Amino acid sequence: MIVKILFLFIIYSVIGWIWETPYVSFNEKKYVNRGFLKGPYIPIYGYASLTIILSMSIFESIDGSILLVIIQIIFISLISAVWEYFTSLGLEIAFKTRWWDYSNRKFNLHGRVALDYTILFGIGGFLLWHFVNPIFDSIYNSISPNYLLVFVLIFYTFFLIDSIYTFRDLLRLRDIIIKLNNLKISFAGKYDYIFEKAYISIMERDEGFVKALGDYKNSLRREVSSIRNKGGTKLASSIESKTKQLNTILLKSKSLSRFFSKYPKAPSKSYSYLLSVLRNEKN
After folding, report:
1. Is residue 159 in a domain?
2. Is residue 283 in some structural domain?
């Protein structure tokens, strides 16, 4: 039974990736490898699907009818909504970023779930459980237990390594966002515009992040030199020191921009401006 659960988790995680990747790629007009992990799977679909499959047995003693189908779709919708809501909440608490947001849709709950998507997941989940899952049951039963065990072990080895490295990068990203915010606060006051100018210069460029940052450094040198020539030596030194920190942090964040390409509309209630900059570090 445990091997079967692990097998179905793999199947539905991959199905989730196949479901989301073309949809997001079409909307963004470019290929987007959806999901936090590097592999072609999205675990939340696996967890939600397993929850549905393992809990649908409560309907076995109820006579089949249209009403029952509606009840089952509502039940599956609720399961998907619970998984989506608390996954969104957990990720935002842990990594300071809300990776999807339905605030612009009607009948949403805190922007984490929306009624139309929840119903869509309910219908899709019902179709998978009622029509597709029996096929996977047959496939599972037709495969040799030894082959199944090898397949599961190989998959979860790669899955574990992928998860560890992704979690490490998310923690690094969280640290970078917090540092950027703290640095922005330290610039508060008359010369706060210098910090804002750094972001605007990067956000408005198409040539790439490194060139934009290089151009910004050159303009900043002139700015600091002007302040120093006017007698503001201490202020110039302070600004110079902080902008060096800014440059270092932004360069470190460049390697983590893959998360923003996967979730191009990921907002942050506290750090929306900073995220809009990190998202533009794709080149």
Report:
1. no
2. no
